[in-house]
Amino acid sequence: MRASFPFIFCVVVLLAINASTARTIFATQDNSAARAPTADDRGSNPAASDASPSSQEILERRLGEIRSKYHLEEVWIRVETSQGDFLETEFGGAGSSDGVMIGSLTKLVTGIAIAILIQQEKLSLQSKLGDLLDTYFKDRDKELDPSLREISIERLLSHTAGLRTNHSSDPVNGIDNSLVFRRLGINSTPFDYLVESGGDKSTGENGFVYSNLSYLLLGLVVEAVSGESYEKFCDEQIFKPAGISDASIPKLYQSIAPFAGWRLTVDQFDKIIGIFDINNPTVLTRETLRDTLLADFGASLGQKNNVHYTLGVFVKKSADGKSYFLSHNGIADFFRHQRTYYSYMEASYPGARWVFATSPAPKTGGKQIAAEVRQAVESALNRQQ
After folding, report:
1. Which domains does the chain have, with CATH numbers?
2. Which DSSP string corresponds to 321-341?
């Protein structure tokens, strides 16, 4: 059982078993989607045959090559530009209405929920867990560990809270989800997961350590501060305003809901990524995005120390601060005999954003797939073969 871990600045793509089943759309959001020309269309239309390949044709061809190379099966891809143009393609029997378990991309949803509470002035980046969760823990007959009391929201958002990492990152000390799940019942909650994992303590260190527990605790904060369940708060405050009506957390994923529990279509997740666009603010205001997404808090990461982690994404700003780049991946393979998924998102503001998903999740080759898919997307958008 692998826990999800990030690949910084890489795109991972999801391809398919049968290219003939692919569906591709290229349209603007203001118009109804137009079906991509098929080979039959071009054969019956000489003008279409002579035209240079369209963006969707280039993307489909390039992804088809990657699919064959890496033996990927069901695939979902959506690419959207800042002008509202989009490419949407499925391969291998996948459908655009299919829900995808997005794994650690769930952290984006949890991060946005926290940013909303900050925007509503119900907490701040410097709010401490001792003030936020003391009663929440006592109501569940548990004392908040002293090591957690001074941990701030900022440190949780940026993975600098001194919490245990995942087994895949640290096979010796990391949390082995398979062992935790054996001790949990079918109706277990994120609070139960926290206790059973033994992760309800901090080492006190403030360096960057990627930990699912940071976002699990943020999910508990959402419930404690809002007075609502995590799922209901996200539905009312994020999904409905974004035009998403059927996001869900399957029962089996309830105990890990705040860090890996959401099921969304790629189109729906694309709307979630759009919330981070400071030039077109929706759920979060420009001020909130400046103070949370673009504030450069937490550890400095990357070769040039110009990458930061917050709101569930890696953030890299340009030197002049006029543009920024976001990325993250997710894997859902927590439960034996359940379908596995790999997903990846990347966004440039201003510019294009995209999300990919594949099932079953590839066991290896993520970084190389990422590099090849990025090239494919860029070629399609620039109409370069």
Report:
1. 19-382 (3.40.710.10)
2. SS-EEEEEEEEE--STTS--E
**What is the C-alpha end-to-end distance of the chain, expressed in Å?**
39
d(CA 185, CA 251): 11
Judge if pTM exceeds 0.85: yes
Strand order, beta sheet including 307-310? 23-28, 85-91, 74-80, 353-359, 341-349, 324-332, 313-317, 307-310
Residue 31, class by beta-carbon neighbours within 10 Å (0-12 exposed, 13-18 middle, 19+ buried)? exposed
| DSSP-based three-state secondary structure for 10 | coil
Summarised one tens digit per residue, pLDDT across range 275-288 is 999 999 999 999 99
pLDDT tens column, 355-384: 999 999 998 777 788 788 888 999 999 887
Closest-CA residue to 369 (of 336, 344, 350, 341)? 344
Encoded amino acid at 149, one letter? R
Q: Which of 53, 64, 52, 106 is nearest to 89 (CA)?
A: 64
Q: Find where tokens 């378990």 sit.
A: 101
**Burial letters for 102-116: b for 16+ Cβ neighbours within 10 Å, e otherwise?**
bbbbbbbbbbbbbbb
Dist CA 112 CA 73 (whole Å): 31
25 DSSP β-pair partners? 35, 88
What whole-number distance in Å separates Cα of residue 191 and Cα of residue 185? 12
| Residues with Cβ within 8 Å of residue 102, at least 6 apart in sequence | 262, 263, 264, 269, 330, 332, 341, 343, 357
The single-letter DSSP state of residue 239 is I
Does residue 35 register a pLDDT over 90? no
Got the DSSP string for 66-93?
A: HHHHHT--EEEEEEE-TTSEEEEEEETT
Tokens of 275: 């919330």
Rounded to an integer, what is the distance from CA 70 to the centroid of its chain?
A: 22
- DSSP letter string, 115-179: HHHHHTTS--TT-BHHHHHHHHHHTTT-PPPGGGTT-BHHHHHTT-S----BTTT-TTTSB-HHH
